[in-house]
Structure formats: structure tokens, C-alpha cells
Design brief:
This protein is α/β, with parallel strands linked by helices. The protein contains 11 helices and 10 strands. Strand 1 and strand 2 form a beta hairpin. The chain is globular.
Length: 304
Amino acid sequence: MNRPVAQTVMQRASFTGFEGNAIAADQWPGEGLYPILLAPGGGQTRHAWGGTGKRLAQLGFHVTSIDQRGHGESAWPQSGDYSYSAFAKDLVCVAQQLKSATGHAPVAIGASLGGIAGLCAQGRDSSVLSGLVLVDITPTVKVAGVEKILSFMAANIDEGFATLEEASDVIARYLPNRTRPKNLDGLAKNLRRGKDGRYRWHWDPRFLDNRQSGKNQRDDLQAEMIAAAKSLTIPTLLVRGKSSELVSEDNVAEFLDLVPHADFVDVTDASHMVAGDRNDRFSDAVEGFVQRYSSKKPDMVKFK
């Protein structure tokens, strides 16, 4: 089903997390039948979804892109709680606030950490979402890929970068197959400039403390994600970067066994950073998924 392109203007919005923490957001008000909630990956900000958010809003959907706790312009919680449970609880709160404002539970599109939060949130409260898109994340993943990502995030965490170009060099070494942008304005949105004039990643360094807390936490998270996946009844889409360093073909097969009604799209020429690597193909896949259900009221949608 094709919709006419709507003219949308991005607005700033704010939500409240489960600890009373402020959650910053960009919002494209639309006339869709249900809202869409975009949750970025760890270390990313809401700006990672700019292109996708605008495209979905032009189709008529009410789109909200958030900075997760401790990221971007969202508050750094005094508790320092960056557990996976905390991110899931925040997402429940944001989804409930969207439902209250629009009358409909949102479709969540979550990349990596955002996908973990979305899946675990739905596992805790089956009424919180009307649909779920997981972007390059499954209950089981390649441990080596996790370690590679954490190593990249920890690079220059204390000393930061003297210039945007220096930060761009680090990203280019991590993502050698991605075309390096000539304009670094987009990169600047993912960095904060300290009083010393140096640039640092736009997230609380304490975030990594939870990520590096060991095997027991990973096992607990995996068990919760598997249980949540088994309980899914809402429309579900898994999007994987075909060259992903995190999600293997075996991981995909395991997920589809857990969620037999789920759709799956493999995006060629994309790694774990699917939306950034091939935003055109990623957005096409997501648009096709949400448009399939756009002619029905969200509380009536059931996967065929």
C-alpha cells in the first residue's frame, strides 16, 4: 500500500524514564494509524535515525527517535544504572507515554542495544508494543563481535579527540568499507566538546562498566531475550547486515526457530551498522514491513 508523501517538520520532544530521568527525542508528527519508536544502539544517538525517521514520517507515521539514557542529550542517571534491564524499563515508559498521547502502542525499531531494550520490554509487558523490528541483534550473538565493538567504543574514551578529523580517522579504521563523509557535521552530533576543547563520544563513560561486567550478565540477558522471543505474538522483523560482525547466519536461524512468524531481511554491503552502511536498503525493508499493517488498527493487527 503506497501513501502520498506528507510534508513533515521535525520537532524536539522529551520523555521520562523509569527513574524520572529525562529522555531527549526528535519527533516527526504524522497522520499514521500508529506511532513508530526508534531506539539507537549503544554509543549512538537519535541522530542515527534521521534519514529513516523522515522517510517513515513522509508516509504518514508519527515517528519518535530517542536518545537512550546516558546518550546524546538524555540525562546521565545519578544511579549510574546502565544495565540492560534499565534500558528496557525506560523503553516501556516511553512506549506507554506514546500510547497515552496517540491512543496506540508504538512499533519499536531498535538497533543492537535498542533492539535488546525493545525485545525485553515486550517480554515484560506484552501490551507495550504493536510491532517490533530488531536491527542486527538476536538473543545469541558472536562473542568476538561483541568484544570488537566494545574495544572500538573504549578507544580514546578518556583523552578524546583533538579534532573531528581525528575522530573520523578512528571510525574509518573500524569501518574501512564505508565511504568516508566529506562533511563531518553528522559526526559532530555524536560527539560532545569538553571544557578542554577536546571531543569525546556523546555518552556517559560509565555505560561501558556494565557492558564489561562479565559472562554471568551475558548469560542472564541471553536467557531473558530467548524467553521474550518465544513469547512474541506481534508482527516482528529481523534485519541483519549480511557482513555483520555480531549476528551470524546460525544466530538468525536460531531466532527464526524461536519466532517462526518473523520476517527476515539480509542487507548486502552492510555490517552491524546496517542503517548507517545502507540506509536506503534498510529503510526500504522497514517501510515494507510497517506499510503491510498501516491499513489496519494496531490493536487488530495479527501476523498472518
